[in-house]
Amino acid sequence: MKARLSWICHGPTQASRKGRFPDDEPLEARALQRDGLPTFRLGAIDRIWTSPALRARQTATALGLDAVSDAALRECDYGDWRGRSLAELQESDMESLALWMMDLSVAPHGGEPLAAVAGRVGEWMGRRIGEAGHAVAITHATVIRAAVLHVLQAPPAAFWAIDIEPFGIVEMTSDGRRWQLRFPKMAV
Questions:
Q1: For residue 98, what are the domain limits?
Q2: What's the helix, strand, coil split of the chain in %, to 5?
Q3: CA 18 – CA 130 distance, rounded (Å)
Q4: Which of the chain's ends, N or C, has fewer CB atoms near its CB within 10 Å?
Q5: Strand pairing of 133-139 and 179-182?
Q6: Domains of the chain: total
Q7: For 129-162, where are the alpha helices, taking DSSP H only?
Q8: CATH of the domain at 115
């Protein structure tokens, strides 16, 4: 039983452009224009899920995909840091920011620890491992990073070594026992 899982990161927002922790903001207007959309060769799709966040749902709609919202794919809750930039936090609360980046189990912002995001994403993937066919998940860079960590069984510090761009795509496959990363060849 072969499964394929395509992770798609939502399109760009003002928060992503300005290095701010996101809230439930919309995509930038340009990202919603047809000429601003990337082209994906996803092939036949059996199931499509999206984060409940507006930017993820808008990405699904813009790509012409009819997705079901799944709370397990939601963005990390950044608590008091929502709307604030990394530069601002480096000036006003450097210790908390450094602690958060070194220890994924803490949440000095009063929201959700990154370890909790990784746990829920791993559980979500575990529930999908036996499902045959091609599934698509439209979500956030944080969630996709957590999925990659899960597949590689990488240490938590590797979280920050994974860069997911807006509209970025990560492919995985499963044989029903485990997930693995897949690097498809370029279309000619």
A1: 3-182
A2: 40, 15, 45
A3: 39
A4: C
A5: unpaired
A6: 1
A7: 141-152
A8: 3.40.50.1240
Q: Which of 5, 3, 27 is nearest to 14 (CA)?
A: 27
Across 17-31, b (16+ Cβ under 10 Å) vs e yields eeebbbeebebbeeb
Asked whether residue 187 is domain-assigned, the answer is: no
Nearest CA among 173, 152, 153 for reference residue 5: 173
The amino acid sitting at 2 is K
Contact between 148 and 5 under an 8 Å Cβ cutoff? The reply is no
Alpha-carbon distance 175 to 84, whole Å? 42
pLDDT at 99 (0 to 100): 96
User: So what's the pLDDT on residue 51?
Assistant: 98
| Residue found under tokens 């008091």 | 80
Task: Please indicate, yes or no, if residue 188 is contained in any of the structural domains.
Answer: no
Say what angle helices 141-152 and 114-128 make with each other, to 10 degrees.
70
Q: Of 124, 95, 96, 100, which Cα lies nearest the Cα of 113?
A: 100
pLDDT beneath 50, residues of the chain: none
